[in-house]
User: What shape does this take?
Amino acid sequence: MYTNKTTKRVTVGGVAIGGGAPVSIQSMLAVPAHDIAGNVASAKKLEEAGCEILRVSVPDRQAVKTLEALKGNTGIPIVADIHFDWRLAVLSAEAGADKIRINPGNIGDEQGVLEVVRICKQKNIPIRIGVNSGSLEKDILARFGAATPEALLESGKKHIKMLEKYDFSDIVLSLKSSDVQTMYNAYVLASETVEYPLHLGVTEAGTLSGGTLKSAAGIGGLLLRNIGDTVRISLTDDPVEEVLAAKRLLSAIGLRKGGVRFVSCPTCGRTEIDLIGIAKEAERRLAGLNKDITVAVMGCVVNGPGEAAAADIGIAGGKGCGVLFKKGKIIASNIPEDRLLEALISETEKM
Ligand code: SF4
Assistant: This one.
């Protein structure tokens, strides 16, 4: 299942966005911009975790060196995140950035934007117009009274027009807000009138659990309506968690095949093993396994294998022990509780 076929397609360092391409997963480096080794190490981890496009802040000229090192030492497409100074966008493009993200609210005058267009055309790289509710242009804020969905779209459209005026159409648009309903409605409006691919995100979403939930509601709700071409789940946590959360979200709504789908029961009075601990650890250890299977961790033998009949493999607990089952049929029983997890992992890896 793929996303919106009606948007234009752009390419970021070999990764297609829009026009029916699979929804891609993005994240952003969180290491201080001048720590070259730290950023490269983090980028490698993110690439390994499944990040497909990676953004790096370029707050000054020295940070361009970090971008250069990322390009030289990783295979992941790199997006330069630029605020305030269009010159940094030009330097980043010259240093090999695969896309430039500019914030219309603070990138400066049109002349600066023109310079960014010029270098992006020359390097054949796209620009993301990254509208953010926290930094809308003052005139738009005054006109709409607040950072409403309409105001976010107005800012995006204004900058699309500016780029189109200079014959530039290699554009991705994002309309982020920390308010789920605002971002949701802004993207719905955009999908009705904008032909460019949409980068979805809830900004300042929060910590792992709350932020993932907000993103699942906002981003997931849009994707279910076939709106959106690339996503970033932004979390106050290790960026690897952003990538894992995005992978889980795409897999949960059927936009991504491959990778383990994990199901586990909520536990109840029948549970007699540490199901929560086993389930958490199983999900963590199987997260990176590239197999298109469903794995179940269930609380009791009485109902577990039946309730998880659709699972390819699973375990179900008994009194201090458990069983291993495949497609609803028990294949090993009386496995001591402390060996259940290992039994599940090793059998899953063999599949
Ligand atoms: S599988 Fe068993 S333990 Fe889990 S919720 Fe169902 S009945 Fe309860």
About this structure: Residues 59 and 290 are 36 Å apart (CA to CA). The chain has two domains: 10-252, 261-350.
